[in-house]
Amino acid sequence: MKKAVLKFLWIYLLFVVVFMLMKPVFLTVYASVVGASASDWLAVVRHGFAMDLCVAGYLTVIPGLLLAGELAARARWIRVALDVYMGVAAALVAVIYCLDLGLYGSWGFRLDMTPVFYFTTSPTAAMASVEWWHWFAGVTGMAAICGGMWLLYRHSAGEVEVVPPRGRRRLWEPLAMVVVTGLLFIPIRGSVTVSTMNLSRAYFSTNQRLNHAAVNPVFSLLYSATHQGNFDDEYDFMPDDEAARIVGELLHAAPEEGDSIRAGMPGPASTGMPEEVPGSAATGMLTTDRPDIVMVILESFSAHLMPSLGGEDVAPGLDSLAREGVLFTNFYASSFRTDRGLAAILSSFPAPTSTSLLKYVDKFEKLPSLPSLLRREGYDAAYYYGGDANFTNMQAYLVSSGFNTIVSDKDFPVSDRTSKWGAHDEKVFSRAFEGIKEAATGRRRGVPRLSVVQTSSSHEPFAVPYSNPRFAGEPRKNAFAYTDSCLTVFVDSLRTLPDWNKMLLVILPDHYGCWPENIASAPARHHIPLVLAGGALAVGGVKVDKLASQTDLGATLLAMMGIPADELRYSRDIFSPETAPVAVFTEPSLVGIITPADTLVYNPDADAVVEARGREPYPGDGSPLLPAAKAFLRDLYATLGNL
Q1: Calpha distance 265→256 (Å, rounded)
Q2: Residue 95, domain member (yes or no)
Q3: Residue 584 belongs to what H/E stretch?
Q4: Which of 51, 296, 352, 563 has the most crowded CB, counting CB atoms within 10 A?
Q5: How far from 26 is each of 33, 36, 91, 149, 221, CA to CA, in Å?
Q6: C-beta of residue 384 within 8 angstroms of C-beta of residue 435
Q7: Does 248 map to a domain?
Q8: CA nearest 406: which of 417, 414, 398?
């Protein structure tokens, strides 16, 4: 019995030690990003210790039960089964840690179920960003971690003989071993009080990267896996009716003086457009009420690429269009990846923090969308993308959203599919132009059309058939410049068409930008451009400074055309004086709200305010936006659960 307990403790401590050692590894790999001092390293290990004990407890339950079985049956196969389990556990831990290390640099959060969704829908697309050295580093790291854990096990717990070959059986021993295993309930639960282990236990710093370093990625993955579909219980901060009321006030009601949620917002008469510009109302923005809409969704673009938004001169073509048409200067991306961004752009549905709407076909089929509402008005709808349309259930989503023509990688010749994501942007834009030209001159001439072009070349690994000498040695900037050059050629081609005067161009990114890298501030990450251009615009050279999000695009476009948008619950007409200036965005374990008076970034899983500032100082977590952030999440998940 003593040897069984000793082996049990060795196994438990092995997991704990490995988890503790991986924290310095993470801090070393991301030293330039985290910026941790020596004391921070110790704090990371200390504050993540309870979570490491918890995960080690989960992984030691099966060894404890196997040891109890070995005491009862004294069968050699049970010891073999324990060895096999430890080998599998070591391999799984190695895979999780290496995958987490590889993804954190791009995603900025610890591992969750997102890559599993991506891989299961299209393994090829999921691996498109992976270069050969990623594979080499990943395989080497997995082998090192797995091999190290196995050696530690074999030279510690593996050498302990639980029972002698011969000897008297004691019936109490296996029962006692089960009781000892049951004690793992304490570290697994995290305490003996009402509070159980959760992500907030690792949070201790105002530096979000240090908090991430303290989180055990195995726990993060398990937490995400168990919070995927139970929407009714997610973020149950308040009753649903109260949450809906607060969200209604935040998003849809005009600001009132003294309102704690919208303190300091402009009054109802402010639209953010200069008063001297004619047609400042949405209904006066177009020369025709049924324009041909050409929407370009730019992969990973950000406000930091445009001089007109205070950024660098990386995308001069887009910047020129912005100066020529209508530029929304305080526009924010809903989330961090394309699948979540598409739902925000096309369905005006905010991105949940813990999952993607596109995972749930039965739910997104019930959502109204901009394309489906336009189809009711007689529009054709076409979608052009150079990659795999099955990735993240995109094909099913686009069909259910109302697109009757979908062009993807399989529709391009093999010779055009030279990008890891499929066809490069120049090929996609060319194909889209031919489709638009054919529609303008063919048998469907006169039928209004929504044409959406989704780019992909400005995505990792940023390998493009283009070399701008201004960005030599800077592949990210070069990739954005390439897509911008393709966009410029595309728009110049559209100008040659006889229907140019009926065209409304809508240009925006799919999600927050990937340049500059490692922007610490979430609001700065999510700041993106929205540009309206084209011959159908009745105004030009206009900047709209009103705060808004991607989800507001649908109602705004429909209002410009005089089409009701009541079905798009989370969408608001940006030009309406009845719409409060506010932007809302999410990331995994993060929700942000920006108003003219206050900014809040809140981690609901850790129940921690990440960033808060306002015109008037307020103590600690006293942001007036905190109730609104909690209400927004509760309302969003209640809506998702009811679909």
Answers
A1: 8
A2: yes
A3: strand 583-587
A4: 296
A5: 11, 11, 18, 17, 16
A6: yes
A7: no
A8: 398
The residue length of the chain stands at 643
Tokens describing residue 26: 């993470």
Q: How many domains does the chain have?
A: 2
Q: What is the pTM of this model?
A: 0.84
Task: Report the C-alpha gap between 596 and 546 in whole angstroms.
Answer: 9
- Roughly what angle, to the nearest 10 degrees, separates helices 172-182 and 38-73? 160
Which mean pLDDT values do the consecutive 10-residue runs of the chain (643 residues) have? 89 96 94 89 94 96 93 85 95 94 83 80 69 81 94 86 66 88 92 72 83 92 78 90 94 52 31 38 86 97 95 96 96 94 97 90 91 96 94 90 93 91 95 93 83 94 92 94 98 96 97 84 94 95 95 96 94 92 94 94 89 72 86 95 88
- pLDDT score of 259: 37
Answer for the pair 157, 7: CB distance below 8 angstroms, yes or no: yes
Sign of CA dihedral 295, 555, 403, 418: positive
Indicate whether 233 belongs to any domain: no
Positions of E strands within 241-340: 292-298, 326-332
**For residue 266, what pLDDT is reported?**
30
Note whether 296 and 214 are same-domain residues: no
Query: Which residue is listed with tokens 């457009």?
Result: 273
Q: How far apart are the first and last CA of the chain?
A: 55
Is 99:33 a contact under the CB 8 Å cutoff?
A: no
Kind and range of the H or E element at 549? strand 548-549
Q: Which of 293, 294, 295, 297 is nearest to 457 (CA)?
A: 297
Q: How is residue 14 annotated by DSSP?
A: H
Q: Determine the structural domain holding residue 564 and report its residue range.
A: 288-642
The pLDDT assigned to 284 comes to: 84
Q: For residue 14, what are its two tokens?
A: 């092995």
Give the whole-angstrom CA distance, residue 402 versus residue 329.
30
Backbone phi and psi for residue 161, each to the nearest 5 degrees, phi listed first: -85, 115
Question: Within this chain, do residues 436 and 552 fall inside the same structural domain, yes or no?
Answer: yes
CATH number of domain containing 590: 3.40.720.10
For tokens 């990331």, name the residue.
587
- Decide if 34 contacts 209 (C-beta within 8 A): yes
Residue 266 is encoded by which pair of tokens?
Answer: 């402009």
Instruction: For residue 230, give the amino acid letter.
Output: N
Residue 599: left (phi > 0), alpha (psi -120 to 50), or beta? beta
Question: Which residues, 6+ apart, have CB-to-CB distance to 393 below 8 Å?
Answer: 121, 339, 358, 359, 361
Residues 191 and 303 in one domain: no
Token reading at 549: 């999000």
Query: Do residues 175 and 301 both lie within one domain?
Result: no
Distance between CA atoms of residues 51 and 219, nearest Å: 7
**Adjacency order of strands within the sheet including 583-587:** 583-587, 590-594, 598-603, 608-614
Sort 60 into a burial class: Cβ within 10 Å, 0-12 / 13-18 / 19+.
buried
Q: Using alpha carbons, select from 633, 642, 643, 640 the residue that is nearest to residue 242.
A: 633
Report, in this order, helix, strand and coil percent for the chain, each rounded to 5.
Answer: 50, 10, 40
Amino acid at 492: D
Are 216 and 308 part of one and the same domain?
Answer: no
Do the domain assignments include residue 39?
yes
